[in-house]
Specification:
single chain; alpha+beta; four-stranded mixed beta sheet; 6 helices; 4 strands; 45% helix
Length: 191
């Protein structure tokens, strides 16, 4: 036994399709509009300075969080020191991992810069990425992270309040393209 189906006339079908498209556009619009407000989101690291890249990345991350009703992350200098050092190290020493070749973890790096000192409770996370040419822009990196469940979970975690962002020119692989960039973001919450 089937369920009754309503047959729509051609004009009604067109209106139904348009209504569905508008509803979909309204759902996608906040993230797209917020991301458009991020200056230099499509800039390449060879075109602008590191500070511009960091600000664009932070803006895009916070646009994604706003779309999901989350408070923005604030940039923390200690987390930025840990993230920036790791991005530089990966690009300079041709490796791509949360752990450095000497075995140090991202928690070790965050602890070393003093972020966890005096904290009774804390949570930290890390996203890393790299891209070359048009995939080296902040917009491209954030889009890739949002397509990955683990990276997306870090970005959309309501636990995190602060972030450090590091962007280094170059690829973290031997013979990597000069038109590449390596990103590291360290998320944190401490109490």
């Amino acid at each position: 036994m089937g369920f009754p189906m309503r047959v729509l006339r051609p004009r009604a079908r067109v209106l139904a399709v348009l209504a569905a498209a508008c509803a979909l556009a309204l759902v996608a619009a906040p993230a797209a509009l917020a991301a458009q407000a991020c200056p230099s989101a499509s800039a390449h690291p060879a075109q602008v300075g590191q500070r511009v890249m960091v600000r664009a990345t932070l803006c895009l991350l916070n646009a994604e969080r706003a779309t999901h009703g989350l408070r923005p992350l604030s940039l923390d200098r200690r987390l930025s020191k840990a993230a920036g050092g790791h991005a530089d190290d990966m690009a300079r020493h041709n490796y791509f991992s949360h752990d450095s070749p000497n075995g140090g973890t991202f928690v070790d790096r965050i602890r070393r810069v003093g972020y966890l000192r005096g904290a009774k409770r804390w949570a930290v996370g890390e996203n890393i990425a790299w891209g070359s040419r048009n995939r080296a822009t902040p917009r491209s990196i954030i889009e890739a992270w949002m397509e990955s469940s683990g990276h997306r979970a870090n970005i959309l975690s309501g636990s995190y309040r602060e972030i450090g962002i590091g962007v280094a020119r170059g690829a973290p692989v031997a013979g990597g393209a000069e038109s590449a960039a390596t990103y590291a973001t360290d998320f944190g919450m401490r109490r």
